[in-house]
């Protein structure tokens, strides 16, 4: 069985809105969210690009690990240790005005029509199942199957932190992934400490938490599965778009609206509901 769900691979290293073609999900919502999120990232000093050259992500990670700014990537996102590639993964890069990559966020899409996270947890994290130890008590691990997005490799260079980007980036990745693949679930592992601080629900937009997963040979400690279903993703994107993206641009005399330049791009939705990104803005 081919374990990669059929999909169209965009050109590597496109500007994020140009890489977007909505094949699944509500095109007006997803198109609008990506455009507004891209603008918000620009206001924070970042230009977002969509990439699938995971060798470059690994190189950047190694460089930043040496600088003490990041931890080593898990094998999920290392192409030397897993089968990740353009058909089943992507990563977002954020570049500053000097062209330096100061932000990353990656996602891997699994096609598990006849299996579950519980059965695939070792392969998912290590890249290959070679008998590594994993202890799972989370009920959700038995539930998560089908077309599944797993996220990780979230990194911001220290001088770009505290710009509210940690709330924005996971949602951008979900919006893009759910437009390209017919997702059944999105999920990520979150440490127990971050869950207790509210990160998984408020920052990451996850709808459910399931305890717990342990990899005894790795230093993560107790991990919690933070997961969402498609309708919950759409609801969270609508709320975030209205309350945090659009509202920030509303002055005392205006109503919630999209700036005129974006409004023109939002009309680029075909009769079958497919939104295609515009390259009209640099």
How does this structure look, described?
The protein has ten helices and nine strands. With 282 residues, the chain is an alpha+beta fold. Strands 1-2-3-4-6-7-9-8-5 form a nine-stranded mixed β-sheet, with helices on both faces.
Helix content: 25-40%
Order of helix and strand elements from N to C terminus = EHHEHEEHEHEHEHHEEHH
The main pleated sheet reads as:
9 strands, mixed
Termini Cα gap: 41 Å
Total E-strand runs: 9
Radius of gyration: 18 Å
What's the tally of helices? Answer: 10
Mean pLDDT, nearest integer?
A: 87
Morphology:
globular
Label the structural class: alpha+beta
Explain briefly what this protein structure is:
The protein is of the alpha+beta class and 282 residues long.
Structure keywords:
single chain, alpha+beta, nine-stranded mixed β-sheet, globular, 282 residues
Break the fold down into its secondary structure elements and pairings.
Layout: E1 14-15, H1 16-19, H2 27-43, E2 47-51, H3 54-67, E3 89-95, E4 101-112, H4 117-126, E5 135-136, H5 140-143, E6 146-156, H6 165-180, E7 185-191, H7 192-196, H8 199-203, E8 208-214, E9 223-228, H9 230-246, H10 260-266
Parallel strand pairs: 6-7
Antiparallel strand pairs: 1-2, 2-3, 3-4, 4-6, 5-8, 7-9, 8-9
Helix pairs in contact: 2-6, 2-9, 6-9
